[in-house]
Amino acid sequence: MTVVVNLVISVLVIIVLQLLGMLIFSWMTPFKDMEELKKGNVAVGLALGGKFMATAIILGVAAYTNTSIWFLAMWFAVGYVCLIAAYWIFELVTPSFKISESLKQGNVAVATLLCMVFIGTAFAISSLIV
């Protein structure tokens, strides 16, 4: 029974952390992500998908390598800060355009690259989680 309770608690914590991560990412953009998705903005969909996948990768590795909910949350926080840093570094190294404006305008090329930046960063960071 203890195993089932621990599993349920772990799943709930993972879901809450995933939603919290997506909420924080949505605060970083000057537009409403869900409104852009309703309009059919593929670029925003790709960027959001990359963010979701990246946070899921970090959460999955943190859950796999830690038996404590606190360590899972701590490693997720470390990984999440790295994802935010990757976004701002990407913004800095692309001074010829602003990421959020490109996404709102539907620039799929920028969105695809940003998606891969998030996923690649998540894979690299998750290899450091112990």
Give a structural overview.
- Helix 3 packs antiparallel against helix 4, helix 3 packs parallel to helix 6 (108-126) and helix 4 packs across helix 6 (108-126).
- This protein has helices at residues 2-28, 33-38, 42-65, 69-93, 99-104, 108-126.
- Helices cover 82% and strands 0% of the residues.
- The two termini are 27 Å apart.
- The protein is elongated and about 55 Å long.
- With 130 residues, the protein is an all-alpha fold.
- The mean pLDDT is 89.
Question: What is this structure's SSE topology?
Answer:
Elements: H1 2-28, H2 33-38, H3 42-65, H4 69-93, H5 99-104, H6 108-126
Helix pairs in contact: 1-3, 1-4, 3-4, 3-6, 4-6
Shape: elongated
Radius of gyration: 16 Å
Largest sheet: none
Helix share bin: over 70%
**What class do helices, strands and sheet pairing give?**
mainly alpha
Taking pLDDT < 50 over at least 5 consecutive residues as the criterion, the unreliable ranges are: none
Task: Give a brief rundown of this model.
With 130 residues, the protein is mostly helical. It has 6 helices and no strands. The model has no long low-confidence stretch (mean pLDDT 89).
